[in-house]
TrEMBL record, chain A:
Protein's name according to its UniProt entry: Extracellular solute-binding protein
SUPFAM superfamilies, sorted: Periplasmic binding protein-like II
Record PANTHER family: ABC TRANSPORTER SUBSTRATE-BINDING PROTEIN, THIAMINE-BINDING PERIPLASMIC PROTEIN-RELATED
PROSITE patterns associated with the record: PROKAR_LIPOPROTEIN
Assigned keywords, A-Z: Signal
Cytoplasm among keywords: no
From TrEMBL, chain B:
Originating organism: Nonomuraea phyllanthi
Protein name: ABC transporter permease subunit
Pfam family name, one: BPD_transp_1
Keywords linked to the UniProt accession: Cell inner membrane, Cell membrane, Membrane, Transmembrane, Transmembrane helix, Transport
Residues passing through the membrane, by range: 61-84, 96-120, 150-173, 207-234, 254-273, 307-333, 364-386, 398-418, 486-509, 529-554
InterPro entries in the cross-refs: MetI-like (IPR000515), MetI-like_sf (IPR035906)
A biological process term (GO) from this entry: transmembrane transport
CDD domains listed in its UniProt record: TM_PBP2 (cd06261)
UniProtKB/TrEMBL annotation, chain C:
Keywords associated with the record: ATP-binding, Cell membrane, Membrane, Nucleotide-binding, Translocase, Transport
Protein name: ATP-binding cassette domain-containing protein
Stored SMART domains: AAA (SM00382)
GO CC terms in record: ATP-binding cassette (ABC) transporter complex, substrate-binding subunit-containing
Keyword RNA-binding set for record: no
Lineage of producing organism: Bacteria, Bacillati, Actinomycetota, Actinomycetes, Streptosporangiales
SUPFAM superfamilies associated with the record: MOP-like, P-loop containing nucleoside triphosphate hydrolases
Source organism of the structure: Nonomuraea phyllanthi
Length: 344, 567, 379
């Protein structure tokens, strides 16, 4: 009796342990190879379909990641799983897994940070150009290609200003407006110490307005928030009128629920630049290559950049007027920025 | 020499192997991460230590951390002991309410608790401030309270520390001979003098254990300071460490680990003090013979004491949960609550989300499995290895206890390096989470099981041996059942912290092994407070349904004559 | 009790000692890290059906010695045999664990398991022993027998926490008896109950031991208990056996001042040994020469001490005849029920004396002790 119970319990545990995770895209049953595919693409699709599955790590927001996963799954009949990570968690995790020799993800789609070339150098990823991706780079503008890092920018998330419309934040149009003394104590500063991804942004501000901007911002007594998400929630609640730098997808998400939140896109901007990285020891290498091909295709890239707040390299109209690439923004190190802002 | 004469019994062998395995499980993954920055080209390189000393404002960092951890620790010791004393010894106790509700704040994962409190206590739009300003007739748009402050941070820390003290001191008081207190009353001391001069000294070992856990968990808390401290300009070590590890790649592991060495040093000192304390007072005070004392009558103090308890419970458990419920029904954190627009949208979204469902099931199963495995292992280790009192016992204890003082992020990376690839191939499975959870929570587990083992008089096991039962049988039939109340209490603590774990899960959970803590992080990064609130409440409900009955049962059983031990 | 009777008196009992200790030594480490012997080379035999009492003050090593027999302590040196079987031998590295020594033990604290009913507590030794547990009915029958034997058959379903100290004591005794072992160890089992219950249990225990015929080693610090129960007493001091013998011998002819002082009340008069011929001895004291029985180890000219029991002194009346007499001042007399206790001073030596009541009259009285009631021992 007891032994029966025990084995039943063990079986139950095992079943639960096997229960698989999250964010799986639906498999559109029996998708065929498109008729207009080149022979190389045709071979890749067949190989990817044989693998049948794809796992990727995403920095783009969950709803975007889900949309492209579902679309890709439906198109090629490949099961897609993803998890959404912040850029620094992604680096930590991908590095540890690659080093252990068993990467869980076939590729990552993350911000371009020093981690990306490092991963290539350590042999954890392979260059897109060397990965036999059919038609690569498939008409992608040269400015978006990063041949040394072996990858390409497939999404741009320009940084702007999130404002509380009830507190008169609608009056703000550009970065210098924030320095108006009337906003003193009403600015939420997203802590630049939490991620290196903020460093290019502050370099842009320094480049455009000089270091003086930072000292004047410090004099505005900003409230320091731990991240863009809690900052925008505080904004919605009316703790302040401005979040700098603001993320459009988060602001729009709250706005759609009725929060008095708006988003302003100043013409001068930069932001996280999203690049794919193919895992060298991927469990599903062909599916990963096909996914990169898809993300860089007209159709896939459009899907990836469907929501406001992200710019597509294939559609310059989606970008702010004076966008500056991260690679052109260096010179002021993070420590200097923190010191100017009065953060230790 | 003679000590080694008797052939090792299978039980001893199994227990020793288990202890060694636990030690290895804690030390090995860590070594993979920690040693690297200190070794360059086969030589020991102390550059990280130098870099650590060159950290900006190192003194401020340490000072701030010490104030918050120390302040909240002392406050928790005072509040937790007082709650335990009132519940165990006075007529102000209120049955189930005072038995288990002090543990409720603990059921809310720290990240949800921190968000709950910033919803309540933010200067302008905190729900509590909006309620209090008109109530107290205060004008303006700010205050009166600000949770992003020294007192706010210490307060929230304290809430998460109190349950540990409450549980451990309760167990100690149950075990301490109430006759000593009655003697004190007869000698003319009032109830509060008796508490201070007799009851508390009698449970000194428990207080020592609680203090150790305070330090250990206090330094480890990350979500709370990450959310509440920056705005107050307070620099907390755990936040700085995570920043060093995740600001850029490659992580500054060397400096991060060196900073953690400070924590380790403090924990070592407290640990040493506690072992000394245990040794010096093992025989003093702890008795257990004789009838249970009649609860102390507080007289005119009874009403106010009860009111204070209820107020504490409301303040610490009802309020933050309320804040989360409100934000979840509003859809976002709104400065002005529009009651007509409340909706269940976020709740239905959460309930319909398959990822969250799976995460919830995984977390609860992992919580139950890991807590059970962890407590059983801890019980064996407590009884066999630690009681031996020899150098090896201390070593194993240290191996189990110290690695988790490092940032859980470091430990988690170590687990990936150690177990993800060949030969274990556990990457992306629930097994790797299980190993990490058990290992990271051994300090709590062994603290609880040590206390439980201390309550079983050695004569009870001697009697079993002489009656012809071997060690294994004695453990199963005598020691384990007698330790059960203490072990169950420890189980509950483990279950809750594991089911809501965020730190290790951030690195170890993934597509194949989603857990709630990771799901909460995903939702948090998306800025969806409504769903975060809904998930947290669901998790709290689920864990309450498991933990409250068990705790209640354990406490009733612990208090019944059936488990009274005789010395 | 049939099963017990048969099992407790093995055939070879007549020749093999129930316990044989040979040079048992156990060291412990003091707080200042030095070694001290808790048990310092003890050798003795316990005969079958004998009740040997280990008597001594706390800290004399008697409990450590008992626990060494049980296997709960590991001696550092020596040999322990139980029923002819070597269970411990330091030289050979042999140490049989307690559960395989086939003995029973009753603890000072009773050590009843609070989570088990009385029945389960008593049945535990039966179902735990190696070599197969008995059938269920047999366990039931034997537990019942044991509980009846100790007079609490109606308590089988109760839990230890629900019973009085005396009842718990009986349960512990039943548990020690139930397996019918040839050897039962008692570690101050009666020290936790009140005097009345203690006396009754003592008598019952003795009757039971005589009837069942098991050998027993019984630790106590209570000399009355030792006297009443023991076949032989081993008086222990600082880890050694100071004297081993039947109660009467221990009481009447203590070998040392320590034994005399520990067993009963001993009045002492210091002096110098004038003569000692092995039978008789004369001690020169402040009251003149005193004649008495000679203890072992007396040397002429050495310091000695005359010892007498309060019940052997005579007091009052005119100056008595005979050798051992002196004047003393009566300080106080107290009625103690069976006798009156008088406290007297003679010079600077105080003594106690019991009489049956006849008043001495006056402060200054004559005191005398018969020579065969006075014992001369080395100082």
């Amino acid at each position: 009796m007891i032994s029966q119970l025990r084995s039943a319990a063990a079986a139950g545990c095992a079943a639960l342990l096997l229960a698989s995770g999250c964010g799986s895209g639906d498999t559109g049953g029996g998708a065929a190879v498109p008729a207009d595919a080149s022979p190389a693409l045709r071979t890749l699709i067949e190989a990817a379909q044989k693998e049948g599955e794809l796992v990727w790590y995403s920095v783009p927001a969950e709803n975007i990641a889900k949309a492209v996963s579902d679309d890709f799954a439906g198109k090629y009949g490949i099961k897609v799983k993803f998890i959404r990570l912040t850029s620094s968690d992604l680096a930590q995790r991908f590095a540890a897994e690659a080093e252990s020799g068993k990467p869980a993800a076939d590729l990552f789609v993350g911000s371009y940070t020093p981690f990306v070339p490092q991963a290539l150098e350590k042999g954890w990823t392979v260059k897109l150009a060397d990965a036999n991706i059919p038609d690569y780079p498939a008409g992608f503008p040269d400015t978006y290609l990063l041949p040394d890092a072996g990858t390409a920018v497939i999404q741009i998330q320009p940084t702007g200003i999130a404002v509380n419309t009830r507190q008169g934040g609608g009056a703000i149009k550009d970065w210098p407006d924030i320095l108006d003394p009337k906003w003193k104590g009403k600015i939420i500063l997203v802590d630049p110490r939490t991620s290196a991804a903020y460093t290019p942004f502050w370099n842009l501000i320094v480049k455009e307005y000089g270091e003086e901007y930072l000292t004047r911002l410090k004099a505005q007594n900003p409230i320091v928030a731990a991240g863009a998400a809690p900052a925008t929630q505080q904004l919605a609640a009316g703790e302040a009128a401005i979040v700098m730098p603001g993320v459009q997808s988060i602001a729009d998400g709250l706005k759609s629920k009725g929060a008095p939140v708006g988003y302003v896109q100043p013409p001068a901007s930069t932001g996280p630049e999203i690049v794919p990285g193919l895992a060298a020891k991927a469990a599903h290498p062909n599916a990963a290559r096909l996914f990169v091909h898809y993300l860089m295709s007209k159709e896939g890239n459009k899907k990836l950049n469907a929501l406001p707040g992200s710019g597509s390299p294939l559609d310059p109209a989606t970008l702010p007027a004076r966008y500056t690439f991260n690679k052109d923004l260096s010179g002021t190190p993070a420590e200097r920025i923190n010191a100017l802002l009065g953060l230790t | 020499m003679i000590a080694r004469l008797r052939a090792l019994t299978p039980f001893q062998v199994a227990g020793t192997l288990l202890a060694l395995a636990l030690g290895a499980l804690a030390v090995y993954p860590l070594a993979l991460v920690v040693i690297r920055p200190f070794v360059t080209g086969g030589r020991i390189d102390l550059a990280p230590i130098r870099d650590t000393l060159a950290q900006p404002d190192l003194a401020t960092l340490l000072w701030h951390t010490a104030v918050v951890v120390g302040g909240s620790g002392l406050a928790a010791m005072a509040i937790g002991s007082a709650l335990a004393w009132v519940n165990e010894r006075t007529d102000a106790r209120m049955g189930l309410l005072t038995d288990v509700v002090p543990l409720v704040p603990f059921l809310l994962p720290p990240i949800a608790g921190a968000i709950g409190w910033s919803l309540l206590g933010s200067e302008r739009s905190g729900y509590l401030n909006q309620l209090l300003r008109p109530l107290l007739g205060l004008g303006g748009t700010q205050g009166p309270i600000d949770v992003h402050s020294w007192y706010g941070l210490i307060f929230v820390y304290t809430i998460y520390q109190v349950p540990y003290v409450f549980m451990i001191v309760s167990a100690g008081l149950r075990n301490a001979d109430a006759a000593m207190e009655e003697q004190s009353r007869v000698s003319g001391a009032g109830p509060f003098r008796t508490l201070r001069r007799v009851s508390l000294p009698a449970v000194r070992p428990s207080l020592g254990a609680a203090a150790l856990l305070m330090v250990w968990t206090g330094f480890g808390l990350f979500s709370i300071p990450a959310i509440l401290a920056p705005q107050a300009g307070i620099d907390i070590l755990s936040v700085r460490v995570v920043r060093l590890l995740s600001f850029t790649y490659p992580p500054e592991t060397g400096v991060a680990v060196s900073l953690n060495l400070v924590v380790m040093l403090v924990v070592t000192l407290v640990w040493y003090a506690q072992t000394r304390l245990l040794r010096s007072s093992r025989t003093a005070g702890l008795g257990g013979k004789g009838a249970r004392a009649r609860p102390l009558r507080l007289g005119r103090w009874r009403g106010p004491v009860r009111a204070a308890i209820v107020a504490y419970l409301a303040l610490t458990s009802v309020l933050p949960l309320g804040g989360l419920v409100l934000v979840s029904l509003t859809g976002f954190w709104s400065g002005t609550v529009d009651w007509s627009r409340l909706n269940l949208d976020a709740v239905t979204r959460t309930l319909a989300d398959t990822a969250t469902q799976e995460a919830l099931v995984n977390s609860l199963v992992l919580g139950a499995v890991c807590a059970t495995a962890g407590m059983l292992a801890a019980a064996v280790v407590s009884v066999l290895v630690r009681r031996s009192g020899r150098g090896t016992g201390m070593l194993v204890d240290a191996a189990i206890k110290f690695p988790p003082t490092l940032s859980h992020l470091v430990v988690a990376v170590g687990f990936v390096l150690a177990f993800s690839g060949a030969p274990f191939q556990l990457g992306g499975t629930l097994w790797i989470l299980m190993l990490a959870y058990v290992s990271l929570h051994m300090p709590q587990a062994t603290t609880a099981s040590d206390a439980a083992a201390g309550q079983v008089g050695p004569e009870l096991t001697d009697a079993s041996r002489v009656s012809g039962a071997g060690q294994a049988r004695t453990f199963r039939r005598i020691t384990l059942p007698l330790m059960a109340p203490g072990l169950l209490a420890g189980w509950a603590l483990l279950f809750v912290t594991i089911a809501g774990d965020i730190s290790a899960s951030a690195i170890l959970a993934g597509t194949g092994n989603e857990v709630v803590g990771f799901r909460i992080l995903e939702v948090f990064a998306n800025g969806d407070y409504a769903m975060l609130g809904a998930i947290s409440i669901l998790l709290t409900l689920a864990t309450s349904l498991v933990v409250l009955p068990i705790t209640w049962y354990a406490r009733r059983r612990g208090a019944s004559p059936l488990s009274r031990t005789h010395f | 009790m049939r099963a017990m009777d048969v099992e407790t008196v093995p055939e070879r009992a007549a020749t093999t000692p129930a316990v044989r200790l040979d040079g048992v030594r156990k060291d412990f480490r003091r707080a200042d890290r030095t070694l001290a012997a808790a048990v310092d080379g003890v050798s003795l035999d316990v005969a079958p059906a004998e009740l040997l009492v280990l008597l001594g003050p706390s800290g004399c090593g008697k409990t450590t010695l008992l626990r060494s027999v049980a296997g709960l302590e590991q001696p550092d040196e020596g040999r322990v045999e139980i029923g002819g079987r070597v269970v411990f031998d330091a030289a050979r590295g042999l140490d049989v664990p307690p559960e395989r020594r086939g003995l029973s033990m009753m603890f000072q604290s009773y050590a009843l398991w609070p989570h088990m009913s009385v029945f389960d507590n008593v049945a535990y030794p039966l179902v735990s022993r190696r070599g197969g547990r008995p059938a269920k009915d047999e366990v039931g029958a034997r537990v019942e027998q044991a509980l009846e034997l100790v007079g609490i058959p109606e308590l089988a379903g109760r839990y230890p926490g629900e019973m009085s100290g005396g009842q718990q004591q009986r349960v512990a005794l039943a548990r020690a008896l139930v397996a019918g072992d040839g050897l039962i160890l008692f570690d101050e089992p009666l020290s936790n109950v009140d005097a009345k219950v203690r006396e009754r249990l003592r008598a019952e225990l003795l009757a039971m031991q005589r009837r069942l015929g098991f050998a027993a080693v019984y630790v106590t610090h209570d000399q009355t208990e030792a006297m009443e129960l023991a076949t032989r007493i081993a008086v222990m001091r600082a880890g050694r056996v100071e004297q081993l013998g039947p109660p009467r011998e221990i009481y009447d002819r203590p070998a040392t001042r320590y034994v005399a002082g520990f067993v009963g009340i001993a009045n002492e008069i210091p002096g110098e040994v004038m003569e000692a011929d092995g039978e008789r001895a004369v001690l020169r004291t402040a009251y003149g020469p005193l004649t008495g029985l000679a203890g072992p180890g007396l040397e002429q000219g050495a310091d000695g001490v005359a010892i007498w029991r309060p019940e052997h002194g005579r007091m009052g009346g005119p100056e008595p005849d005979g050798p051992n007499r002196w004047r003393a001042r009566l300080r106080i007399s107290m009625f103690a029920g069976p006798h009156i206790e008088h406290h007297l001073d003679a010079g600077d030596v105080a003594c106690r004396l019991w009489s049956d009541g006849s008043d001495a009259g006056g402060d200054e009285v004559w005191l005398s002790v018969a020579p065969d009631r006075l014992l001369v021992l080395p100082a």
